[in-house]
From TrEMBL:
Keyword terms, alphabetized: ATP-binding, Ligase, Nucleotide-binding, Protein biosynthesis, Transferase
Organism: Candidatus Buchananbacteria bacterium RIFCSPLOWO2_01_FULL_39_33
Catalyzed reaction equations: L-glutamyl-tRNA(Gln) + L-glutamine + ATP + H2O = L-glutaminyl-tRNA(Gln) + L-glutamate + ADP + phosphate + H(+)
EC numbers, comma separated: 6.3.5.7
Domain of life: Bacteria
Function text: Allows the formation of correctly charged Gln-tRNA(Gln) through the transamidation of misacylated Glu-tRNA(Gln) in organisms which lack glutaminyl-tRNA synthetase. The reaction takes place in the presence of glutamine and ATP through an activated gamma-phospho-Glu-tRNA(Gln).
A Gene Ontology BP annotation from the UniProt entry: translation
Name by which UniProt lists this protein: Glutamyl-tRNA(Gln) amidotransferase subunit A
């Protein structure tokens, strides 16, 4: 039995029924990493020793009949943007290549407190800046469905680790589509939570007003299960309100008959791959068969969202990344004549091209004389985008769209053309600007490449999109299909 291929809930039940041990699951995942990670390059750091020790600790508790927490003994891969105490946390950047944090991110602490098994830290576009998995400071990650193609980003390694059965689930971050897009490209299920639903404490900030934390899993049921363990108020993150955490696992089992799903005309535009359009519309018909009413809606400011995002995001990047200065921690180039030289030499050597590009754009947009023309205007557009979603979601329960205009493209295809990369986020960015929740679920294949379907819901209404996604997966089997990785 290939224990690494289990879903989270299958492993959860099997451990408690003593069908297998946590050590056996963990070794199965590590074996899969050993066989295939050289090809896909999902991991930056693999923590084999501590993972096996944690698994053995859980197995002792099982033998002694002690009650176990829901995540106990389950191997998870964590995006290397999360701080992990005593374990290298690089942010995918050379400037933090040897950084070992003295504390855990809240999401990581919750997993550790429940005796989860952290198997390693996954690759990402540097400091989450990118949508392809090519812009890591170390190496690109490859799509297991076609090793010549990108897996999406920035949570590239997390999506690939889950898709390749190197873990049972993974953690990623989503600022403008960084969970949903790689989930779509790798045939996994990716959940972007509402802004503030899961604590960001201890996760390296890129765009503080947009960053969210979420799981990448093998199906919607697992995503609901994991969210239930991670969501909630955190006194160390003031953006997490004290709002009830739903019993997502119970809620998803409810019938979706009578729900209203909206199709926004602005998401079915010229430039959308015809096969992707066809797949999404077939999925819409499946929802109608399940008793859902499908209606047309409008999100009129969609065409302005990408432009607004790529002013807001770099502006906050230029502020957040000022902390990496070569003085307090991380890479330090101290061969200059003065403090300014240390700053310049350290950041020049430590940051990659995309990070430098966004810092420069953001600094310009925030500078005297340009703030009102750029950043302030972008924030006004953000309000218009949010109002569009408020109005549309006042009429329907869920909005259904493609995740990406195309399937995964070839590695290197868009290098030197950053605007092409940016425009690939056209269908994911608006929901991020609005702070609402979104779910990517597998919906079909175009020329052998996975295509995802995006379900968007009201803020803090994750239960409804998870419910719809779960019922869709009960009626289809796209999410069960695996890539044909060979050694």
């Amino acid at each position: 039995m290939d224990l690494n291929k289990l879903t989270v809930l299958e492993a959860f039940e099997g451990l408690r029924d003593k069908k297998f041990s946590s050590e056996e699951i963990t070794k199965s995942c590590l074996k899969q990493i050993d066989k295939f990670d050289a090809k896909v390059k999902a991991f930056i750091t693999i923590d084999e020793k501590n993972a096996l020790n944690q698994a053995k600790t859980v197995d002792k508790k099982i033998k002694s009949q002690e009650s176990l927490s829901p995540l106990a003994g389950l191997p998870v891969a964590v995006k290397d943007l999360f701080c992990t105490k005593g374990l290298k946390s690089t942010g995918g950047s050379k400037i933090l290549a040897d950084y070992v944090p003295p504390f855990d991110a809240t999401a990581v602490k919750k997993i550790k407190d429940q005796q989860g098994v952290i198997i390693g830290k996954t690759n990402l576009d540097e400091f989450a800046m990118g949508g392809s998995g090519e812009k890591s400071g170390f190496f690109p990650t490859h799509n297991p469905w076609d090793l010549e193609r990108i897996p999406g980003g920035s949570s590239s390694g997390s999506a690939v680790a889950t898709a390749s059965d190197m873990c049972l689930y993974s953690l990623g971050t989503d600022t403008g589509g960084s969970i949903r897009q790689p989930a779509s490209f790798t045939n996994t299920t990716g959940l972007k939570v509402s802004y503030g639903r899961v604590s960001r404490y201890g996760v390296m900030a890129m765009t503080s007003s947009l960053d969210t934390i979420g799981p990448i899993t093998k199906n919607v049921e697992d995503a609901a299960f994991i969210l239930g363990q991670l969501a909630g108020r955190d006194v160390r993150d003031s953006t997490t309100p004290d709002i009830k955490v739903d019993d997502y696992l119970k809620e998803i089992k409810k019938d979706i008959k009578g729900l209203k799903i909206g199709l926004p005309k602005e998401y079915f535009i010229e430039g959308l791959d015809e096969e992707v359009r066809r797949i999404v519309l077939i999925a819409t018909k499946k929802f109608e068969e399940l008793g859902v009413e499908v209606v047309d809606v409008s999100l009129p400011h969609t065409d302005l969202a990408v432009a607004a995002y790529y002013i807001i995001c770099p502006s906050e990047v230029s502020s957040n990344l000022a902390r990496y200065d070569g003085i307090r921690y991380g890479l330090s180039k101290r061969d200059g004549d003065d403090l300014l030289a240390i700053y310049l030499n350290t950041r020049s050597a430590g940051f990659g091209v995309e990070v430098k590009r966004r810092i420069m754009i953001g600094t310009y947009a925030l500078s005297a004389g340009y703030y009102d023309a750029y950043y302030k205007k972008a924030m006004q557009v953000r309000t218009l985008v949010k109002d569009d979603f408020d109005k549309a979601l006042g009429k329907v329960d869920i909005i259904l769209t493609p995740v990406s205009p195309t399937p995964a493209w070839l590695i290197g295809e868009n290098i030197g053309h950053p605007l092409k990369d940016y425009l690939a986020d056209v269908f994911t960015i608006p929901a991020s600007l609005a702070g609402i929740c979104g779910l990517s679920v597998p919906a079909g294949f175009s020329q052998g490449l996975p295509v995802g379907l995006q379900l968007l819901g009201k803020r803090f209404d994750e239960k409804t999109i998870l419910q719809a996604g779960y019922q869709y997966q009960q009626a289809t089997d796209w999410h069960k299909r695996k890539s044909n990785l060979k050694t």
